[in-house]
Amino acid sequence: xxxxxxxxxxxxxxxxxxxxxxxxxxxxxxxxxxxxxxxxxxxxxxxxxxxxxxxxxxxxxxxxxxxxxxxxxxxxxxxxxxxxxxxxxxxxxxxxxxxxxxxxxxxxxxxxxxxxxxxxxxxxxxxxxxxxxxxxxxxxxxxxxxxxxxxxxxxxxxxxx
Length: 161
Description:
Elements: H1 4-31, H2 38-42, H3 45-60, H4 64-90, H5 110-118, E1 130-131, E2 134-135, H6 136-156
Antiparallel strand pairs: 1-2
Helix pairs in contact: 1-3, 3-4, 4-6
């Protein structure tokens, strides 16, 4: 049985890790000026949701098992999205409409059209930042898979001795 101390420790560790991951993403975006694509932004959602849910568990001390499983499911979804993003980068998949979210034309005049041309639309297939030769989508695929496995295992084994 996962004791309350073990689960609290796991929630604290996952909160710290998610905060670090988001800070790294925002540092890369704002300080290093690497503009994220639409999929990069979507891949941040499990981290943000996890911080909120894990914090709520620590504050209210309820629903630990359900939240562990929910976080695991969030990161399974994150794994799928990240793997899809990785596949687009490698040419395994074609870009979808998700990759084109920010480029809907709302130009009503030539001036509006010229302003839209100045806006940078980032393709999901172009890797603008690498760490140790790997894209952030590659790292996120691995990390999301590991977090989902850890959280689901902790959640599913919560009541076992």
